[in-house]
Sequence to fold (69 residues):
Amino acid sequence: FNILVSSDPKESSRHWEIYSYSGTGNLSVYMPGYQPSEIISDQPITDKKWHHCAFTFDGKKVELFLNGK
Fold:
């Protein structure tokens, strides 16, 4: 995994992280304690270009964004 940004220790119920998968480079978000705990996009971010990566979480719904989409 290539972790881009994370919050709180992995043991914390408040932990989250945005990362890319090694090999595919697909953008992903991990939030243990929620179902599903992992959201994996079908878009790679390891193409040597700049990308805008973000996610939102309102307590119920996670949305993962890549380049505004």
Q: What stands out?
A: Residues 25 and 47 are 8 Å apart (CA to CA). The mean pLDDT is 90. The radius of gyration is 12 Å. The chain has no helices and six strands.
